């Protein structure tokens, strides 16, 4: 039996890559360059780039990228950066720039690289989660659909995600991030602790 191997090349960024993440269902690859202003999400099967998210205007080092568990909900991508903020990007409400560009006057006038940068980001930020410059890692541990008695079972109304953040100097935080289909969001800090102090106290006892 002959085996077929496929090779796809993704032209992610002009600058060297700083972070990369693969979604749990294997559909998406997220990338960030050393500049850190734009985060791109690519379809693995076709090496296309359906989502462009602007993290910020000024360069910042992306310390971590991570997808939430894939469910029948909008896919969530989270990131931390040297600015000290936590970023959440919702793929479920993102706009496909290729589709928009074909019929838009702006897309006809501007080059692809510029109109990509203007793609509206479904971007939710938790400012100053950790001190600026602190290296950190963020993961989405759980995503749940919030039930609504007036909505059908297949209709997305809102979701709640458990987001865990840990810094290299031992601080751990856990947040509840909530988002609805109007792209409104909120953050709630559930608890935080210093892991190094906890370990030290346990050793002394």
TrEMBL record:
<dbReference type="InterPro" id="IPR048720">
    <property type="entry name" value="PROPPIN"/>
</dbReference>
<dbReference type="Pfam" id="PF21032">
    <property type="entry name" value="PROPPIN"/>
</dbReference>
<dbReference type="InterPro" id="IPR015943">
    <property type="entry name" value="WD40/YVTN_repeat-like_dom_sf"/>
</dbReference>
<comment type="similarity">
    <text>Belongs to the WD repeat PROPPIN family.</text>
</comment>
<keyword id="KW-0677">Repeat</keyword>
<dbReference type="InterPro" id="IPR036322">
    <property type="entry name" value="WD40_repeat_dom_sf"/>
</dbReference>
<keyword id="KW-0853">WD repeat</keyword>
<protein>
    <recommendedName>
        <fullName>Autophagy-related protein 18b</fullName>
    </recommendedName>
</protein>
């Amino acid at each position: 039996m002959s085996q077929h191997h496929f090779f796809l090349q993704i032209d992610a960024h002009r600058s060297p890559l700083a972070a990369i993440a693969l979604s749990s269902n294997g559909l998406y690859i997220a990338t960030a360059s050393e500049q850190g202003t734009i985060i791109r999400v690519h379809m693995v099967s076709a090496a296309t780039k359906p989502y462009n998210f602007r993290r910020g205007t000024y360069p910042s080092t992306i310390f971590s990228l991570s997808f939430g568990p894939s469910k029948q909900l909008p896919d969530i991508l989270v990131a931390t950066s040297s600015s000290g903020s936590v970023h959440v990007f919702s793929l479920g409400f993102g706009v496909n720039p290729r589709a928009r560009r074909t019929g838009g006057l702006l897309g006809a006038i501007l080059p692809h690289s510029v109109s990509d940068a203007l793609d509206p980001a479904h971007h939710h930020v938790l400012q100053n989660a950790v001190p600026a410059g602190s290296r950190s890692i963020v993961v989405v541990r759980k995503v749940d659909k919030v039930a609504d008695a007036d909505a059908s079972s297949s209709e997305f109304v809102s979701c709640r995600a458990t987001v865990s953040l840990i810094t290299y100097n031992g601080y751990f935080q856990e947040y509840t991030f909530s988002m609805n289909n109007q792209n409104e969001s909120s953050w709630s800090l559930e608890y935080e602790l210093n892991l190094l102090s906890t370990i030290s106290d346990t050793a002394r006892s």
